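Hi U.,

Before I forget, here's the chain from the pilot set. I'm dumping it here mostly so it's searchable later in email.
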Amino acid sequence: MKSLGRATIGLIITYLIVSGLFYLLLGPVAAVAACLLLLGVITYSHMFFEKKLTKYFKLEELPAQNPYTFLNSVQKYCNLAKINLPSIYTSKQNYDQAFTFGSSYNKQSIVIFSQLLDKLSPKELDTLAALLVAQVNNKSSISNTISSLFISFIFFATQSLDELFRFLTGVKESPLKRRANLITYLNSPIIYSYLCLFHPPSQLYKADKLASEWTGNKQNITRLLLKLHTYSLKQTTPPPLKYSHLFLTSPLTPLDWTTYLIWQPNVKKRTLKLVGHYPA
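Structure:
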């Protein structure tokens, strides 16, 4: 099933759950009001998602004239996929990562952090471009946005309760430790299930396969994924939990309590799925 189709099913199921709960607890009028309110909140969040993302990561459009081959590679694979060229953004923040997002069929975007541009060779940048365009092609970028709208609300609720818990109990541990995120940790299986409902991990496997067909080299795909995973292990400060599922490989790997918050299949699984053996 297409990624966008799964995201649509996720939206419908969410509406059914919310309306059903309000109907059982407060009656039909409350159920209708809850659905209208949810629709308004989702619409508002969707309108401003790109603005919030741009503000947090301080995104800047990648200039057409730049010393990297990445833009040319993106154009090449967009031509192969017969899709419009997405907007390409970069950020100077300290992440060795890349991701996609989109608000509609005609408005999809690729984000690559500037230090990753500097670290990867032209050949690796070409492979990265193939992976990202493959995600844009199967509409994973739009599913990323839709899932982010709901996951943001869930994380807002759990992390607010975590702050209250730390205040009431006097916990002074690092905010990255499990004890400081007890409510989020206990709800992580629900969060993972919701992420898989909106955006199944199988879509990443399909993007990996499509990218390998374009590049003609499966090993290049797996080597790049392994390199991105290695970079994430060295990441001292991960991005906000609500944005972690956007990345090509999970930036939460160094945190031992985030097993069910890591939506992306690990590199070993992706390699086995693509090549049939590990290591590639």
